[in-house]
Amino acid sequence: MATDGLHENETLASLKMEAESLKGKLEEERAKLHDVELHQVAERVEALGQFVMKTRRTLKGHGNKVLCMDWCKDKRRIVSSSQDGKVIVWDSFTTNKVRLRPAWFKVLRPSCRALS
Q1: What is the DSSP letter of 106?
Q2: Name one GO biological process term (predicted).
Q3: Under 8 Å between Cβ of 48 and 39
Q4: Is 106 part of a structural domain of the chain?
Q5: Residue 82 burial (C-beta neighbours within 10 Å; 0-12, 13-18, 19+)
Q6: What are phi and psi of 14, to 5 degrees?
Q7: Same structural domain, 30 and 68
């Protein structure tokens, strides 16, 4: 131990130095663990079973790729926007489009909060 054969003042100083040294080593080891490449972490992750998705309903109306989609709080309506610039509100039960009253709504960020 660092305190064998030392006076009280020397003991305190040597213990502080030893503690600082150990803190430094600990930080180095932590840094090694945090600096890992993705493929090394991926090797440790267990593989998932095959995930099968089924198409339940298809919503047709956008002329280009859909950029984003969000469910409303009522879990009945869906808002989607696409690269063609359209924002469409859907009734998820009937797959019909919900008519929007104000035309300016189509320039807003898609969100169901305004509809709930």
Answers
A1: G
A2: signal transduction
A3: no
A4: yes
A5: middle
A6: -70, -35
A7: no
